[in-house]
Structure formats: structure tokens, C-alpha cells
Amino acid sequence: MSTAPLDSRLERRRHPSSTPASRERFAHPSERVFASLLDLYGIAWAYEPIEFPLRWSEEGDPSAGFRPDFWLPEQACFIELTTAEQRLVTRKNAKVRRMRELYPEIDVQVVYQRDYVALAERHRLSVSEVKAA
Q1: Could you count the other beta carbons within 10 Å of the beta carbon of residue 85?
Q2: Which of 35, 41, 88, 98 counts the most CB atoms within 10 A of its CB?
Q3: Nearest to residue 113, comparing CAs of 87, 78, 77?
């Protein structure tokens, strides 16, 4: 029998649904799955922590922006998920290109549907509900 306090023994056996991903409000189910995978591997993340202005009005106010889905501070990298079919991601790709033009010092990576599906399937996670998004 362990001599560790009950709380510490329960902490080690905590179900994955009680990880930080379960407490975050995500815009799409695929983001929750991705966050759970980051948690599984102990990768620190923040969800949509900042919006980058991409266009400005004549008055100098931001008129368009881009908010990547995840910030991975230990990797100094932003991640944008797109679970839409490849032919439907043109608009998102344009935003990523614009961000890279304006902020070349910031690393932003896109995880496309095929890569997301492969990752989820590798972990035996259901992705049927997120493929159409």
C-alpha cells in the first residue's frame, strides 16, 4: 500500500478528460482533440491567446486579423488547425501567408485535415464528426 497521500495518488490516475483541454471552450471539436493530444504528451499550450492584425483601415485601426488556434511556448510556435477539405482552405491559407509576410519572425504552422486525421487515427481517436468542419 502506498504511503503517499490519497490526493497525490488520485492526481496520478486522473482521467484524461480532466486535463486542461477539458476546461477550455473550443470553437471546434477538433481543437479539443488536438489539445488533449498536446496534454497527453505534456506539451504546454495556450488556446487563441493573441490576434495578429493583418489589415488596417485608413485611420490605422485593425480591419482584419488572424488568431492562430494554439501557442506552444516551449516550441515558440503557433499552430493553426484546419479540418476542412483541402479545396476549402484557400481563405485560411491566405491569412497564414499574410501573417508570415507581416510577421516573418513568428513561426506559424498549419495542421491540415489529412495530417490531423492521421494523428487522431494513430491514437485511435474518432474523427468522423470533425472531418466535415
Answers
A1: 13
A2: 35
A3: 87
Domain ranges (residues) in the chain:
23-122
Report the 3 state secondary structure along 80-103.
Answer: EECCCCHHHCHHHHHHHHHHHHHC
Work out the burial of residue 12: count CB atoms within 10 Å of its CB; fewer than 13 is exposed, 13-18 middle, 19 or more buried. Answer: exposed
Print burial letters for 101-130: b (CB count within 10 Å at least 16), e (below 16): eeeeeeebebbbbeebbeebeeeeeebeeb
Here the cell at position 14 is 486522473
Rounded mean pLDDT for each run of 10 residues along the chain, 133 residues in total: 44 42 80 90 94 94 94 96 78 93 96 87 70 43
CATH code of 23-122, in short, is 3.40.960
CA terminus-to-terminus distance, the chain: 48
77 with 109: CB under 8 angstroms? yes
